[in-house]
């Protein structure tokens, strides 16, 4: 079987993978690379999700790439506009020609004797093999094949339509229908106002409230700058303004949670009036930014509630019935369509198996080095964005860091770079300081962190600029091999070493 060889192999052609292609071409123009994409299209999340109202939950000045200005009027963009932006980027920089579509990566194996990764991908049932000196995992953080669907009691009794937003039927007709959306996260908050244009009524059924904050969908100052200033200068200026505000608000929420909570709830009360039951429906039990805030563009969610087109019910499900959902309180919500906006199934590295010299790597037992590499795994970086800011901010920095590292290996004729944790830390912390259900469900799959660098996740863009873009590569933790290492005596021995 023939094996295609490249300097760098990227997994995933979503917003992160396309960005990685740009940085490789910019910083390492003499290096060959390939992007393996599981699906048959570019765009990742923005090609997969097709539900009504699909949009970003971050402004496009920070969700967009640092190198390609966002030129649309709306700062909070709809899914098709983001899909178009990512595809334009791939075509503008000649990245599309490097993509192999319908290649599902199932296994990546490092061989120290060769100092190479062998990556196996399935295409239409046929296994294809690739070799690369370096692998960049940009496959996102959730399972594209299946969203998270709880086992609802009595679901088989329901005579209407039950769907998950990740698998939205193209022909779903909801005009004049009663719709219940289960969930209180970003997807639910997007769906509810978007479906009120046709539905008879939309009810958001939540077990507990989520913090919401409204922002204008258009940034007037940014649009003025785009019309009156040089394009890249205006974009960079707006981007930095947005970043500083995001970081300021996050730090404020963490340092003064009580005051932040009061202000967030006061803004919603201004929209819904003094008689609305804020305590039941909009007051979470946790502090702001312990879970991600839900963005409400132009107050659309609150307007729909105020106009009587949508409502919120806070309760737990006892059972599904033929006509809808019976709640623990005894109330029955009748529905023609029930949408289970219950979240994602997280997974690491696109769900592929990883091994080093025959020893399988358990990502849940690894530690994250600079939030971009796994302990004791050579020549591999992975993209995992911020939980408190736009995904692409961190993706850009990790791609730049990857190029820096590869160039360093080349310049000094080095074969590999491996973050090595010499001894187990006194305290192992979760990868993300986040209490959201989808993080808790996947905690066993996520690498761990510690309370000190370089094994600490800072969730700080400013810190990461200095660390990933300018920080020294030789820090005593990242170990370099000048020549391919000798093969270990046996896989079990290597497995014990990695453990």
From TrEMBL:
One of its GO terms (molecular function) is N,N-dimethylaniline monooxygenase activity. Its EC number is 1.14.13.-. It comes from the Bacteria. The keyword Transmembrane does not apply. Gene3D superfamilies: FAD/NAD(P)-binding domain. The keyword NADP applies. It is an enzyme of class 1 (oxidoreductase). Its cofactor is FAD. It holds the Pfam family FMO-like. InterPro entries: FAD-binding_MO (IPR051820), FAD/NAD-bd_sf (IPR036188), Flavin_mOase-like (IPR020946). Keywords: FAD, Flavoprotein, Monooxygenase, NADP, Oxidoreductase. Belongs to the FAD-binding monooxygenase family. This is FAD-containing monooxygenase EthA. The lineage of its organism: Bacteria, Pseudomonadati, Pseudomonadota, Alphaproteobacteria, Caulobacterales.
